[in-house]
Design goal:
This protein is 29% helix and 20% strand. The chain contains eight helices and ten strands.
């Protein structure tokens, strides 16, 4: 079955995101836009995923636990997990490897943790925009260890992407899927990097505000509407 996805969305936990990026607002917007499956991928933290999972279940939206990690090379990777338990296990890695630099919310914005009623229950104190102390190999290994899938984010961008920062995608990384932006000229990118022909490509919004969530415009083909089926597709399993 073909499903409409947006697997790169930031909540109010990401300091660069709008304050109205709450569980109920995002899930409602995803429903209005006709999305079948979404992932919340905050910078270097999964602390809002439990609230989103509850709201998504109430509104019949398939919710995939996720995160956007900044590796030591300042490469952005999307990590998607089969369940909340795997995501929370990966949070331990992030807690250990994120530099303990206090967030200046006047400069970067607040980092808000919500409950399922959109109430702010906490503010994350350390700046989530920093790179963690793991390189890309180590980060992917940590995501794989909890049975997740690692996806290089917005690979056609000129900053914070695997191609801009490292120049190529090493086969040793075991990457099966890459993310491109809506404006990407993929045939041209493929000419420069022929190995991309063998990888799955997906397009997401990287939304930091409600209006930026995708419409029904990015699709994948899965056996059923489930987290397991989506992760299996992206992992080529």
């Amino acid at each position: 079955m073909k499903i409409a996805i947006d697997l790169h969305i930031h909540s109010g936990l990401s300091p660069c995101s709008e304050k109205d990026m709450t569980p109920n607002n995002i899930i409602a917007m995803a429903s209005i836009k006709g999305l079948d499956a979404i992932a919340i991928t905050d910078h270097n933290s999964v602390k809002n995923l439990s609230a989103f999972a509850k709201v998504a279940q109430q509104n019949n939206i398939l919710f995939i636990p996720g995160v956007e990690v900044t590796t030591k090379e300042e490469v952005h990777l999307i990590g998607l997990f089969r369940d909340l338990e795997g995501a929370l296990e990966f949070q331990k890695v992030l807690d250990d490897q994120l530099p303990k630099i206090p967030n200046n919310k006047k400069v970067f914005g607040p980092q808000l943790v919500y409950n399922e009623l959109d109430e702010v229950v906490d503010e994350y104190s350390f700046l989530l925009l920093n790179a963690i102390n793991l390189n890309i190999h180590e980060t992917i290994k940590a995501i794989n260890k909890v049975n997740g899938v690692a996806i290089p984010a917005h690979i056609n961008r000129k900053s914070f992407s695997i191609l801009s920062n490292l120049g190529f995608i090493s086969p040793e990384l075991g990457i099966t899927t890459v993310e491109i932006t809506q404006s990407c000229d993929y045939p041209l990118l493929e000419k420069k990097h022929p190995y991309l022909e063998h990888l799955i490509k997906i397009s997401n919004s990287d939304a930091h505000d409600l209006g930026s969530l995708l419409e029904r415009e990015s699709f994948i083909e899965v056996s059923e509407l489930s987290v397991e089926a989506v992760i299996n597709f992206l992992s080529k399993k």
